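Re: Re: ligand-bound prediction request (bumping)

Still looking for help on this. To restate: I need the protein modeled with citrulline bound, output as structure tokens. Inputs repeated here so nobody has to scroll up.
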Amino acid sequence: MFNRAIVRTPAKSMIDGITTADLGRPDYLNALEQHKDYVNALKECGLDVLILEAEEQYPDSVFVEDVALMTPACAILTRPGALSRTGEVHSMLPILEKYYQNIERITAEEPSNATVEAGDIMMVGQHFYIGLSERTNRAGADQMTRLLEQYSMTASVVTMSEVLHLKTGLSYIENNNLLVCGEFISRSEFKDFNHLVVAPDEAYATNSVWINDTVLVPAGFPKTLELIQSAGYKTRTVDVSEFEKIDGGLSCLSLRSQM
Ligand code: CIR
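Reply:
Sorry for the wait, this slipped through. Here it is.
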């Protein structure tokens, strides 16, 4: 069960967010409306939502998921691999201190230059899968693993090459069900999960989010919606098309916590 979510109001500068998509620039006013509906969806799932102020100096700061990992035992501040995002962690520390007694952080630890973005980390109970991506490197994954082990949790790394973050191509929606697409479909480390395979033309919707028995699904992906519903889930669609334009998915827009 999740009790709380932290989100950040999109900055006007989000129109300059990092992107590999060819979908045009985000419309800021529409993004604000979509973000409000996202907050409503979180509240409908029973979460207490803390809305942080926009941070104009960081165009991608609306994607709060990447800057911290929330676990049942501790919160871990990350060290984003995208240089323009490194500073996003600073303002998150005092926020996390309100809710967590135990706060850890990924450090530079010379000469390793460890980096981690938590969009690369998928929680399955007490185990955490860490994707080795362009944003999360081996040194970062090793540090993250050591920190999780200090709190009696476990982790394993997943190599990847096709998507930005691990959870771009993989989402655990509880009950042993895994939404999966592309390079992750036939991977041995996930063979014991029930695979809900997302069609390639709806790959973006693989990043759906389980929250307290409802699955939030991005609007506009009818096959994936049907796939999730036919597995027995209640669903809530949320239009996040303005965030898709800068490579952001549903999960990236919030930090969800059991605290
Ligand atoms: C970035 O490239 O960092 C942002 N434009 C998108 C971040 C998306 N976050 C995520 O998938 N966890």
